[in-house]
Structures are given as structure tokens and as C-alpha cells.
Amino acid sequence: MIIECCNLKKEYTADNTLVTAVDNVSLNVAAGEFLVILGHSGSGKTTLLSLIGGLTKPDSGEVLIDGVENWHQGDDALSDMRNSKIGFIFQFASLIPTLTALENILLPLTFGKTPRGGYQQALDILEMVGLPDKANAFPAQLSGGQQRRIAIARAFINQPDIILADEPTGDLDEETEHDILNIFKEYNRKGTTFVVVTHNIHLARTQLDARILEMRRGVLREKVPVAA
Amino acid sequence: MSVLARHLNILDHTLSSLWRRRLKNLSVLLVFAGVIFLIASFQLVTRALTETAEQALVAAPEITIQKMSAGRQVAVPLAYSEKLSGIFGIRRVVPRVWGYYFDEVSGANYTVLGLERDRMPASGQLDLVLDQGESPAPGRSGAALIGRSVQQGLERKGGSLLSLFRPDLSMVSFTVAGVFKEETDILTNDLIVLDIDDARDLFLVPEDVATDLCVYVANQREVPTIAKKIADALPDTRVVTRAQIRKTYQVVFGWRSGFASVCLLTALAAFVIFAWDKASGLSPEERREISILKLLGWETRDILAIRLWEGILVAGLAFVLGCTLAYIHVAFFGASLFRPVMVGWSVISPSLRLAPTVQLSQFLLIFCFSVLPYMAATVIPAWSCASVPAESALGGV
Questions:
Q1: Which domain holds residue A74?
Q2: Which pLDDT band, with edges at 50, 70 and 90, does B276 fall under?
Q3: Would you say residue B83 lies in a domain?
């Protein structure tokens, strides 16, 4: 298993009320699997994603990536793991506005273990996401869909084993959504593991052999697999 | 990735980051360079003045005796020198006649100094501080050695006549035998050196008195003891040692410089507080940017390293720029901005050319009081930047 979650629990206090965002969740994801976690807004799926990615420390339970527990390693080792093994795709484009599209894509390479000289690789990925002519454009010069594609390109630049995606096609038009999901399919076919949280069940239907789980009030449960 | 490659990456990212915010960074750099320029200028002027005074004092007598009456200096009787004959260690006592001469044409106040050079031990060294001509033979009447501004002010060149007026408005002329070197400007710039009898004649000073007495001592280490014995023997006199004159220069210039430096350090402190406030108060955009970077795998030390490099580049450039401008200001523009503060008397007297001497310790001191606080002000708050949680880049629950 590339991802192993065991009895994960995370609580927040909001407006003096204790909210259990993730409630005793156990989850195993095999290498090369495409996992979709469905859930409404506020169901805890984003928190679960940040627990898996080592962004948030669980109140109890543990997360193992490739057999290594996230919080048993130091802060630097955890950052290093995120850099080399995980690609994040957020709900919003999350680009740095003062950097060009190409510079944004190259950010994970700046301090990663990958040697410098990833420019050609970045240009190739730009072409793959359909924006070969936007290398020197700043985020403000791009549409929302284009920004999302740049963010996706950035997630793939380090050739990570795992992609953690949070509503990757939210607010996108159908054509862009289709293009992005095709990119996901292509990478999944090459062996990249995907954990995608979304409220869009149609997303799952576009992928081959996607496993679907449903999250409701912090609790994760199996849902009937949907054919591609 | 090697440490070198990692830091090259960091430097690369820092440079492009500085360039992207070039207007803001340039403003910070220029303000910072301006503060360093002011502090460095004061330091260089102070050093130049004290250094020049040091050089010029080398040939001064070890002890000077001045008669005081009602708190004012008055002429000292030559007979006083006989009262010193019993003090062991005194090599020679030589009288001097000096005073001020106001030249209405140039509007400058000159110092006229009459020396009995044939009795002065260091009179042979006078030629060493001359830029043009040579000192006249001791006792030769009618010859003058002048400072550079006297030469310019009276529009006289070496060898031409220098005409001055006695108190009764009768005129007396002197041949300019030599002009003092620029390096001794602080003491010789407004100076006219005459034979003592010519000075007596110019100021109408009686033959049995002098303005002061110069005491030359064989053993330098005995100077304080001898000065004390002279003060005991001549209670109505003021006994001034060369070390005291040197110290006076240092105190006067040091005090002025110190006062100005304190004012400027206040400006520097304000700048550092501003830098600290700017660096520690993270805007929502900055917090989001840092959280995205951390999410992409950047480590705390990477963010700190970027801040460090930013500080080094901005503060280092400002330091080099500020110090270079300060040197140019002092060496080529005569420290014109601070001249009235530092060389007060020269407002009346003719101009004084300053030759700054670069001392590593001075610049190290400026570095410690400017660059290091700035670095601390920008790097230390970076800890708070680095502590921004990566999860804040994510939205939702």
C-alpha cells in the first residue's frame, strides 16, 4: 500500500463548538489506484486530504506514505517527502501572482532533489496541459481554467507517485474539465496514484477502475464502484 | 542536490524575487544607503580631521606656557624662562609671538606666528612640510612661510611680496619663501610664519614679552612631570602639553561626530524598526504564498535562507553604495554637507581640504551598527513566516 491511514481523528473548535472533521477514518490506497472521495461541503474531505499529505497533524491515528509515518519524521523530512512523493492540486489555482506560469511550474524543483534544468520538462508539461504559449504569462493574464491547468502542471513537474487533488475541476467549463480529467487518466495509466476529493460524481465516471468512497460528517464509507 | 547547488537555487530565486519587487527594494536600498552614507561621512570626516591634526602636531613643542590674567591669555614675560632653569629635563625654552590678522580684502582671518627658529630643535623639519620653496635661514628678516589658503586669498605665489598692516596702519612687506603642504592644512591653512622679530614688529609686541613659551623636553616620558613642575613654579600660567592638544582635537571632533552619529543612529534605529515591522507583519498574500511554498515541499530553512540572502543583498549593496558615496563626498567635495558642523571655525577661515584615510575598523564598526541590525530585523521575523502552516493554502473542511 502506498497510503495507509489508521484510525485518523481530527477535531476543530469553531464558534465555541467542537467539530469532528475526520472521525476514526482508516483507509488503504494501493499504488496506481484512482480513489475518489465524494462528499458535500463541510464533510471533512479536505481535512482528510491534508492529513494524508502531512499538512495537518491528526489528533490521533497515523498516516503512512510508502511505509513511513508522516509525523514520526522531522519537519524537513516531511517537507522533503511532500516535495518528492506528492503533487497537490488545490480547490483554487494557488499560483504565486508575481511569478510567471513557467516559474510557478518550476517551484517544486527549486529545492527538490531533482537536479536543475527542468525547464524543458516544464515546457513539455505546459504543452501537455494545452498552454505552450503561456510560459511567460503572469497568473493575472490567464483565465481561471488556464490558471488551474498551470497548477496541475506544477503538481506533475516532480513526477510524484501520488496526486492529492481537492475539487480539481470545480468552477471549470466542461471542455477544460474534460481535458484535465484526460490528463489524470493518462498519468494514472502510467502508474501515478490519485486521491481526489470532490462533490462531483461525474468525475469518478471518467476514470478507469476508480474506487469511490463517500465522506459524511467526518466518517468514510464505501460506495458502489462506478464503471468508467 | 548539493549544498552549493541548493544555495545557487536559493540565490537565483532571491534575485528574481528582488527583481520582481524592484521598485520597493530599490526604495529600501536607497534609504538605507542614505543613512549609511551620512554615518560613514561623519566617521570619515572625524578621522580625516584627527589624522591631519595628529600629523601636524608631530613638530609641535612638548609643552606650551601661556600667562593668564583674569581668565584671559596675556603676554608672558621672557624672564619666566629663567624661573624654569632649575627644572631638570627641560632641553630648551623658546618664546613665540603670535596673533590673528584679519584681511579685509579676502574676508579671512589668518594666524600669524613668529618663531625664533634658530633655537627651535625641530626647525630643520620645517622644510619637510613645505610644498613649495624652502624655509629661510633662521633669523632672516622679511621672509614668510604661508598656508595654502593664504596663498590663494592674498593671490600671492612663492617668492612674491606679502603686505600686511601694523595696528597703526603702517604697512610692512614680506617675501613669501614657501607654502605649506596640503596634508598639514588643518594647522597651516590660515598660517603665516615669520621670524619672531618680524612678528613683534607687525603686532607691536615689546621685546621683553612673548605670546607664549615653548618648552622642549629631552625625554618624552617626563613631559607630564615637567609640566606639573612648571605649573608649580609659574602659578599664573597655563601649561599645555602636546598630548593635551591632541586630546582636545580628538574630543572636539569626536564630540561633534559623536553627537551627529547619535542623531543618525536614531534615524538608523527608526529604519530598522520600520524594516522589522515590515518583515514581521505578514500580509494575507504573503502568508498564502509561504503556505503554498511549504506545501510544495519548501522547508523552513529554505524560507529563512531566502530572507537571509535578501538581507545580505539589500544591506550589502546599501553598505557599499553608502560608504563609496561617503568617501567621494569627503575626498572630492570636502564633506560640504557637514563642514559647518565639523570644522566650525573654517566658516570664517579659508577652506580646508580634507584627505580621508580609510580604516578597516571604521567600516567594520559602521557595518556592525547598520548591516547587522538590518539583517536581524529582516531575518528574525522570518521565523514567523516559516511557521505559517502549509495547510492554510487549502480551503474548506
A1: 3-221
A2: low
A3: no
Higher pLDDT pick, B383 / A220:
A220
Q: Are residues B262 and B348 in the same domain?
A: yes
Residue A146 belongs to a domain:
yes
DSSP classification of residue B127: G
> Can you read off the three cell numbers belonging to residue B122?
625641530
B66: which 3 cell numbers? 601661556
Let me know whether B322 and B212 are in one domain. no
Q: Mind telling me how many Å the CA of B31 is from chain A's nearest CA?
A: 24
Q: Do A90 and B397 touch (CB under 8 A)?
A: no
Nearest by CB to residue B295, choosing from A55, A103, A110, is A55
H or E element that contains B179: strand B171-180
- The predicted-structure confidence for A32-68, as pLDDT tens digits, reads as follows 999 999 988 888 888 999 899 888 889 999 999 988 8
The number of folded domains in chain B is 2
Residues B190 and B140 in one domain: yes
- Which chain B residues have a beta carbon less than 8 Å from that of A167? 396
Let me know whether B255 and B315 are in one domain. Answer: yes
* Cβ of residue B197 closer than 8 Å to a chain A Cβ: no
Nearest-5° angle of CA A29, CA A44, CA A220? Answer: 45
Q: Given a cut of 70, is residue B65 above it in pLDDT?
A: yes
Q: How far is CA A153 from the centre of its chain?
A: 12
CATH number at residue A197: 3.40.50.300
B288 CA: distance to closest CA in chain A (Å):
8
Q: Comparing C-alpha atoms, which of B99, B102, B103 is closest to residue B112? A: B99
